[in-house]
Amino acid sequence: MYTNASIINPVNRSAQTEHHPSGNGDISQPLQPSHLLQKLSERAYAVPRTQAKPKPNACATQEDDLIEIAKSEAELFMSTEKQHYAAVQEGNKRIPYPVGDAKGEFAEWLCYRYFQDWDRAPKPPAVKGALQTIKMHCKEGQKRAVELRVGQVDDKIYIDLGTPEMEVVEVDRQGWRIISDPPIYFWRSGYTQPLPRPQPGGSLDPLWDLLPINSPEHQKLITGWLINALWPTGPYPVLFLRGQPGAGKTVTSKILRSLCDPQSASVVNVPREQRDVKSAAANARVLAYDNLGKLSDPLSDAFCALATGAGFGGRKLYTNDSQHVVNYSRPIILAGIEDIVKNNDLLDRCIVCYADKSMKKHTAEEDLWREFKQCAPQIFGALLDALSASLNRDEVVLPENTPRMADFAKKITAAESSLGWREGEFLEVYNEHHHQAMRECIEDDPLAQMIMECVPFEGTATALHEQCRRIADNDPGRQQALPKLPNDLSGKLRKLEPALQFKGIKIDRRTKGRANEKRSVIVLASDNN
Question: Residues 6 or more apart from 143 whose CB is under 8 A from it?
């Protein structure tokens, strides 16, 4: 259930804080969940109860009354994701609720408004019928974007601070400012908490005094991940934090998430299936998973899809009926002890950084958070400066050998001047990191080693499987790595392609033969041949 959803109507900008990137305070207190009816009674749009009043039309039904309340007191519209919404006035702001079934939050609001007017609750069949009609009115309304935490209009980025005052940061190429009237809808899930209130003239230096990240290269990679996480569109590289037990991986994940999308459930254990990932992506902008042991192929594929943006099928959001496909692209943090990213397709989208136990600054997490709260506003302000600079990405031209996630590299390269880095420094670090990850992937993967020993090769998947089996006959470790069926080997080969190509192995798939004699052929060749 979504709560505290917010849209702010264009009013005035008399109370703004503006900052240009030419250059402490506390984080707002977390929002505590409360019962829906208590929230409704406290909000400004709640009409004081009076004595029950006669119906204007004696023939009107409860369903008619509910529809009239919705039409007269809410803006009914469709989101760009084809969801039904009703935006309810609250002072000079509007709160958009998804119009779902009779158990949804909008239905609760509607029933409570009816109760305020008539001193009794409407009957369930009337609510169900009214919601169906209200959805039809939504289709007739103007289509609007409804965003979670971050959105964009033209060349300006808007970030919901998550405060009770509904403040938003507006970022453009000239700088950033805090406003109260963004031209965009924001909704908040029940887990949303406030971002630090940014301060101008900030610096990222205090962040590295808190985190156990000793490598300057890894600090640059994490900085790039943070800036990119504030962009409304991906792709988003997956940040994988490795380290010994007690190295501070979990608290590092929490702090990084607090700088781009703080949630009441900061980090959670690994999901069981793709459906859990989809549910998390529907309620949070940044996903963070801790204590990872082993990632299944389906979960690895789900993280790959979220990194670059993909459709998730399933039951329609907010309802219990029809199928619906929603495209999600989300920044992700994974934390674990072992090198659990074995899926080469996922590794190709990862930034792997190490938490150094010897660099852990605090023994008590309470002390760490107290210090973080003091410096978080200036850290967040420095990130906004860099985000403003990265809006000039169109001026950046990357070389042809840029690895995957080139859009990510382009955004951070555009922000180098704001961060005090020399021109091209981030791309050098990112390229070397990517090459190192591919080298380690090949060295640690027995199946990849077997395939490299088969080069040159031309034949069917069955023939390749047989050749790999002969290589693995005298090595139990390799026997376990070899898929049991040729078709499974062909699928594994596709996921190994990025790493094999890095080692100079060309992979081609062709169809040979005529008519009914056609067969699929795999060709493996080395650049050195």
Answer: 77, 78, 79, 80
DSSP code at position 516: G
Q: Could you report how far apart the first and last alpha carbons of the chain are, in Å?
A: 59
Q: Which residues contact 58 (CB under 8 A, 6 or more apart)?
A: none
H-run or E-run covering 126: helix 124-140
What is the number of other CB atoms lying within 10 angstroms of the CB of residue 400?
5
CA distance 456 to 523: 8
Look at residue 13 and tell me whether its pLDDT is greater than 50: no
CA geometry: angle 151, 153, 156, nearest 5 deg: 85
Cα radius of gyration rounded to whole Å, the chain = 27
Whether the CB-CB separation of 388 and 173 falls below 8 Å is answered with yes
Collect all residues with Cβ–Cβ distance below 8 Å to 26 and sequence separation of at least 6.
373, 374
- Separation CA 502–CA 276 (nearest Å): 33
Cβ pair 315, 323 in contact under 8 A: yes
Tens digits of per-residue pLDDT, 320-356? Answer: 444 445 578 899 999 887 666 666 778 888 899 988 8
pLDDT class of 506 with cuts at 50, 70, 90: confident
Residue 255: how many other CB atoms lie within 10 Å: 20
Pairing status of strand 238-243 against strand 350-355: parallel
**Residue 118: beta bridge partners?**
none
Q: What per-residue confidence (pLDDT) applies to 322?
A: 41
Separation CA 466–CA 457 (nearest Å): 12
- Four-CA torsion 362, 366, 371, 377, nearest 10 degrees: 130
Cβ contact 248:217 at 8 Å: no
Q: What three-state secondary structure class fits 280? A: helix
Choose between 503 and 107: higher pLDDT: 107
Which residue has tokens 């959670």?
268
Would you say 267 and 292 are in contact if contact means Cβ atoms under 8 Å apart?
no
For 468-512, the three-class secondary structure string (H helix, E strand, C coil) is: HHHHHCCCHHHHHHCCCCHHHHHHHHHHHHHHHHHCCEEEEEEEE
CA distance 288 to 273: 15
Strands 168-172 and 287-292: unpaired
H/E run at residue 152: strand 150-153
pLDDT digits (tens, 9 = 90+) for 68-112: 999 999 999 999 888 899 998 777 677 788 898 888 889 999 999
Count of H helices and E strands in the chain?
Answer: 18, 22
- Kindly report whether the global pTM for this prediction surpasses the value 0.90: no
- Per-residue pLDDT tens for 409-418? 999 999 999 9
User: Do 181 and 13 contact (CB within 8 A), yes or no?
Assistant: yes
